[in-house]
Amino acid sequence: MSILNSKYLKPFKNVYIIVIVVFVVWMLFFDAHSWLFHHELNQDIEELEYQKEHYKNEMAKDDKAIKELSTDEGIERTARENYYMKKPNEDIYIIEYQDSIVKQSEDE
After folding, report:
1. Which parts pass through the membrane (predicted)?
2. Radius of gyration of the chain (CA)
């Protein structure tokens, strides 16, 4: 039995099948609009959509902070809580719990 008369090579003797196989391989891997190229673009689109959602959430947080800081009470509360500012005749006491104190190593 010769290699050219093999039952596995019989379909490839037909010119139409050869052309179709070459066309499919070309379109899947080598063309400018190939499946590989589209797969990479789809991954980029998914990543950009994730970033879009992340930035939308950040914008919502910022809008909430802006709305809070638009009133005098909000500004005063932020100044007291975050920057430890006080009124002229006030004393501020910062209470730290044992869990929140960072332990220093004994080597220092």
Report:
1. 12-30
2. 34
